[in-house]
Known about the structure:
Blueprint: E1 9-14, H1 21-31, E2 34-38, E3 60-61, H2 74-90, E4 94-98, H3 102-109, H4 121-127, H5 132-137, H6 141-146, H7 149-152, H8 155-170, E5 181-188, H9 191-208, H10 210-219, H11 238-242, H12 246-272, E6 277-281, H13 287-299
Parallel strand pairs: 1-4, 1-5, 2-3, 2-4, 5-6
Helix pairs in contact: 2-3, 9-12
Amino acid sequence: MEHIGSHNxxxxxxxxxxxxxxxxxxxxxxxxxxEVISADSRQVYxxxxxxxxxxGKGSVHLYDVVNPDEEFSVAHFLRLxxxxxxxxxxxxxxxxxxxxxxxxxxxxxxxxxxxxxxxNESLRSRLANLSVQELQQMVPKSVLEMMxxxxxxxxxxxxxxxxxxxxxxxxxxxxxxxxxxxxQIGLTADGEYxxxxxxxxxxxxxxxxxxxxxxxxxxxxxxxxxxxxxTIGYKEWKCYMESPSDEHKNEAIALWIRHEIxxxxxxxxxxxxxxxxxxxxxxxxxxxxxxxxxxxMWYTSS
Length: 302
């Protein structure tokens, strides 16, 4: 297609896991002369390819950014993504951000006041040995009620919340949203269809060699206590790696599927609260043509 879009366009393709977001984004990139940027908090890690599902590797920006033992936050993503978006726009191409990490998408499109609040190593050191219950007591009840159950029981998330609250008491940090001309496309699916896709994708990744990938990561010295290794697709295999057996393998697969389903549900809850996303159901006939028509109309408008 001849390029006729403006320099300020930004396409976002988002939605729950297993809906084919990356493959669709790559297809759009081919048809609209675009480049794809990953907005996935796990695909930034080198050596973690199969478990995180790096489709189109070699054609997507922000894959393999850091090692599994290095820190990567929404602030890191924002800095790299915005720089890439400007670079792609300068080439008169279409930047296409794709992923299911809702916080990354929100920070990019809407802005988040707390994104630039730095780590407070002294505070983190003081809080490191506190229990979850003790950390929860340091967070106001009204704030705690706004956190989902997983975050409320996650020491790292609680410490970060305390860190932000203390910093906000000292100074006000405001993140100014970039004024991109943004179209957000959301891919979703009916419950049973999405469940089937999740199961199939997990089994595909098992067959592709997730066990060998984890063995290689462990051989390189990466340990289970790292945040990168404590994510879906990896943490479920700890028991099997310590004591390989068919029983533990089957348990790991079942646990992985369950965690993916739970993650998809959390994503749907998150995205339902976000505004300005045009949703398309992937198990409805003609959905892809409808999406492309919407994208074309937006892309060719001034």
